[in-house]
Design a protein that fits this description.
Largest sheet: 5 strands, parallel
Shape: elongated
Number of helices: 10
Order of helices and strands: EEHHHHHEHEEHHEHEH
Helix content: 40-55%
Amino acid sequence: MIKNIVFDMGKVLVDYEGHKVGTVFMEDEAERKEVCTSVFDSQEWLLLDMGLISEEDALKRMQSRLSTDHAKEMAELCLKHWHEYNMQPVKEMGELVRELKEQGYGIYLCSNASLRLLTYTSVIPGIEYFDGVLFSAEVKCMKPQKEMYGHLFERFHLKPEECFFIDDLLMNVEGARECGMEGYCFADRDIEGLKECLRKLN
């Protein structure tokens, strides 16, 4: 019997546009591409999600690849403010979270995300209904690594077979299944399809 619903964050609860902040601070298209690529499409970004590098060290490495002092300044602005512009809550998912909570489910979040977002959970729709939040940077591993799901179960005292996981990446859902937690791939962003699947759980 499923007692808990576990959500991913990006492209499930929250729409994410990796380079949007660049349009706020830079008009020159070439500079914007250079800066955003160095910041958001980088090894350092992955290391931040894994909690293996500080933002200060990540920024230094990102800036080292940039060609001008102005571009380096823009990289600092983009890294400092990305969460204010790149993330937008999906209102309909907030309503779904509320409905599931009212039905008696435990509600949890399991996301590959940096420590920055621990202080910015207000962007998550329905956050007031969540019973627990786990970000990858806290535990220095990421989905679909089995250790990530293990931390989820251990921290919140959950049984895998009583949990249902929703993620936009099939490899993350498959990783959950290998750990005993059934799931649903939300890649098509079909909320009605997801609701229909959830209605059939028990």
